Amino acid sequence: MSEKKSISEGRLQYHLKMKNGDVADYVLLPGDRARVDLMSAYLKDVTLSGSNREYLAKTGYFNDIKVTIMSTGMGCPAAAIAIEELANIGAKVFIRTGSTGALQPEIDLGDLIIPNGAVKNEGTTRMYEPVIIPAVPSTDVLTALIRAAEDKKDTLGFKYHVGISSSDDAFYAEDQRFIRKLTALGILSLDMESSAIFTVARLRRLKAGSIMAASENFSRKIMIPEQVPEQLKEGWKKETQVALRAIEILEKSKGAHTPTI
Fold it and tell me: Residue 10 burial by CB count (10 A; 0-12/13-18/19+): exposed, middle or buried?
């Protein structure tokens, strides 16, 4: 147990300003504070759980299952702090619900991507463990997300892709040479948080997964839209519904033997 964990566990958390009882076992993790309201619209009896810095949290119920939705801000440092402090006050299962820049040409704007691993192209996880150790989601969370995507793809009308993503630190350093290299290696997409969420959750003996909507396709053209495309907004809604369905699946499977990673 780290010194900071032993000092802070169960207390009011320094960055989140949240304490025991403020958070559910299940937590959805968008990056942007603005998406907390969009995603919490799928919950009932929603209450504010915390609001400090980049971290905005609301808690409610999805089919009688208590769920918290909390923004992490941008990047692995902020995401790692979110997992550490949420774990300190009782959260057990984390699902990143974010955006990602697609790399493979067959991925369209608004498609959903479910990573089965993340390249540690960032510095945060190097403070936790050697880079040679892979960043992977929990097997049962990954399986539940895939099952949920299968359940929802026809009614909601989306495509989804399963494969390796890359979590990067330097958004504006992702040039065409870098894009071509990762695309040739078969990496599906780029985000900024999944590797830290997978790593910290695993080290804390908790569970994590990720589902993300494609915000653009860098293999076709590097672009940064001035306004959020409607396909991406729809992708956020669809990934939220898939993630909540995955939580239902996980809740129903409680008590059955499942792998820890």
Answer: exposed
Residues 6+ apart with CB under 8 A from 81: 15
124 lies in some domain: yes
Contact 113, 100 (CB under 8 A): yes
pLDDT single digits (tens) 210-238: 999 999 998 887 777 778 999 999 999 99
In sign, the C-alpha dihedral spanning 20, 143, 197, 129 is: positive
Q: 35-60 pLDDT, tens per residue?
A: 999 999 999 999 999 999 999 999 99
Q: The pTM is what?
A: 0.94
Give the separation between CA 118 and CA 168, rounded to whole angstroms: 10
CATH at residue 96:
3.40.50.1580
Torsion sign (Cα): 198, 201, 207, 213: negative
For the four alpha carbons of 182, 196, 101 and 115, in that order, the dihedral sign comes to positive
